[in-house]
Every structure is written in structure tokens, then in C-alpha cells.
Amino acid sequence: MPFQENTLSGLLKRSNQIPMSFNEVVINSVEIYKADIPLRKAELLSIGEFRATNNIIIRLNTNTGLYGFGECCLIKEVTGETQSLAFEKAKLFAKILLNKNPLEIKNCNDELEKAAADNNHSLKSAFDMALYDIMGKYCKLPLCLLVGGYKKRKITTSITIGIDTPEKMANEALYRCRSGFTTLKIKLGTSVKEDIARVKSIREKIGYDISIKIDANQGWDVETAINVLKKLESYKIQFCEQPISSHNINELAYVSKNSPVPIMADESLHNINDLIMLKEKKACDYYNIKLAKSGGIYSTLKMLSMADSYGLKLQVGCMLETRYALTTATHLALVSNSVFFFDLDASLFLEKDPVVGGITYLENGDINMHLSPGIGAFFDQSFLDNLECIKIQTAN
């Protein structure tokens, strides 16, 4: 079962590192960055068009010289957060953590949770990520070993095809297949006629040996969703992510019951309470977990533990993060037996890669993990130096 809380002493013993001074480690400054990285090309989804990331990067510094990075992506349509408001809220989070021991992750998370309310969980995930990065470095363990153990497995990400004309999407799909990708994620969510034409055109271009999953990003109503999914049955669809609005689980359950295509909950799933409700109402077949939705590693581990207990099938997904957050997500995919699907392609769409270390991609979408203490990656300082930044620190 994944590590959740109150086991620091055991972790230190298992890592053969038993510092006597862990109670003396404190956060003495926090750096908050706005990170707007252009995409290689504009990406259209049913919830809007994206031309750049709207991310926040956090660096927590301690009196010992240890530091940790965290990152989050702010998409209002998913988490209700905007970059500008999160940047301001981050100042409050930073002040909460000043002089706190970053190794006391439960206490730090409890304090942040009180201040997060219902609409700051993406931002909270960045702070939480940085806390775990520090703990991993302190214990000299990579994150996946720190929180539950490394499960050797092959991780292959899908690659996303954004909304466009059927012809352009089919050409993009063919290009990705020729590059070696074996699973395509097709963005839909406009009209019955258009969406069916898109999938039809792609299948005609690439054949049926390549896996296709589709994602409507809440773009359909109930009637349209059932209609489209029935018409797409013959095109061999692996599953459909979030066909309708995230707010009504009963309606999602109705769609799931009447769809020949398996349903995956995405925007409907943020925390362990959502997971329980979706399961109890039989609202979906699969569950998409993202750090930016859940509030971070600490809360995600609880969801993974529950999923393992109930035999649920999960996808570890992403928003528009860099390889840093995607490396973090990959660590978690290596912890749970419940993760069957991987959607970790966001950094492939960015114009620049500001991350040193971390996961690397092969041309076919296979992900290599290089295990080193903590998350095992960091942001290039020359990149950070060109970002808008504020530093919150203890008084001298």
C-alpha cells in the first residue's frame, strides 16, 4: 500500500539514513514563478484553444541547503483556477509554509488544505510536489520508492490529436503512427456529424492496428454523447474520457450504462470523495487521475491506495505541464497496480524544454525513468531567470 503519512522514521531506516536533526529542517524561503511556455502550435479542445502554458513553478528552500521544485498547470475550465489568481494565492501558501518542517508532509498539507478552499487544488499540488522532492532528497530515495515501491513496468504514453478538420486530424494521426506511437488520443466534443467524420477519417488513414481513445472534454450533452458513442462503436474505441459535464454524476452513470464504448471519468474526478461516488454510482469504467486536479502527491496516494483495494482501473494523465510534473506523475504510475493507461505527452507539445533530468521519451512514446533522489529533475536556472518571480522569505 502506498506510503501516506507518519512513516518518516521507517523511511529513514529503510534508506539507511537516520539523521538525528530532521526536526531542525525548516523552509526559509519560497520562490514563485509564472511560466508561460508557447506551444509548438495552437491546440483546440472543446473547452477552448491553447497557445501557451499557464503554469506556476514553486521552489521551496530550506536552512539545510536542500530545496524542492513543484509545478502546476492552471486551466480554469478544469480546476476553476487562473494563473494570475494562483500567483497571488501562492504568496499566502508560501507564508503558511515558512519556518515549517517540509519533512512533516501531513502537517504541511493540512495547513495548505485549510487555505486552499475548493478552488486552489492545482496550486496546492505544486507546493506538495516540492515538499516530496525535498523529502526524497533528504531520505536519498527516488519518489516512487519513497511512497510505495518501484513496480517495474513498461510505460508508453498516448499522443493527443487536437480538434481540427477530419482531413488534418487524419494526417496528424498518420504522422504520429509513423513516428511509432501505438495509442492515439483523439479530441472531440463538437457535433455528432463532425466528431464521427473525424474518427472515420482517422481510421481510414491509419487502419485498426493502432489503439484509439477519445476525449470530449465535457463537450456533449447526454443525448448527444450516447448518440455519438453508439455511432462510433464500429471504429474500435478503447474508451471515451468525460463525454458530458463534470457536475452531474447521475447523468454520467446514465451515459455509461447506455454507451457501447467504455467511459472514463476525468473532470468529474478530483479527490478520493469523487472516486468513491463515481464507484458507488457505477458512473464510469475507468478513472483518470491528475496531480493538478487532486491537490498533489499526498492526496493522490490515498486515491491510488483505494483503487488498489477495489481493483479499479486508472489512467495517470496530465494537463499542459513540463517534463518536471510529468516525471512526478510517472513516479506515481510506477507505484500502483491500478494504473493501466498513461497519458503523459504534454511536454512534447511545448516549444522549449526547461527541465534538466527526469523522464525521457523514445520516438514510440515509451517513457524511460532515470531514478535519482526526490523527483529526479529540476528547472534550468537560466529559464527561471527570465520568468516573473516573487520570493517570500523569513526575516533576517
Radius of gyration: 21 Å
Unreliable runs, pLDDT <50, ≥5 residues? Answer: 1-20
* CATH H level, superfamily name of the largest domain: Enolase-like C-terminal domain
Give me the secondary-structure category. alpha/beta
User: Looking across the biggest beta sheet, what order are the strands in?
Assistant: 6-7-8-9-10-11-12-13
Backbone shape = globular
Query: What would the CATH topology of the largest domain be?
Result: TIM Barrel
CATH class of the largest domain: Alpha Beta
Helical fraction equals: 25-40%
Distance between the termini: 43 Å
Number of helices: 15
Précis, in short:
This protein has 396 residues and is α/β, with parallel strands linked by helices. The protein has 15 helices and 18 strands. It starts with 7 loop residues before the first helix and ends with a strand.
Chart the SSEs and their pairings.
Elements: H1 8-14, E1 27-35, E2 38-45, E3 48-52, E4 55-62, E5 67-73, H2 76-79, H3 83-97, H4 105-116, H5 121-139, H6 143-146, E6 159-161, H7 166-178, E7 183-187, H8 192-206, E8 211-215, H9 222-231, E9 237-241, H10 249-258, E10 263-265, H11 272-280, E11 286-289, H12 291-294, H13 297-310, E12 314-316, H14 323-333, E13 339-342, E14 355-357, E15 360-361, E16 367-368, E17 377-379, H15 381-384, E18 388-393
Parallel strand pairs: 6-7, 7-8, 8-9, 9-10, 10-11, 11-12, 12-13
Antiparallel strand pairs: 1-4, 1-18, 2-3, 4-5, 14-17, 15-16
Helix pairs in contact: 3-4, 4-5, 7-8, 8-9, 9-10
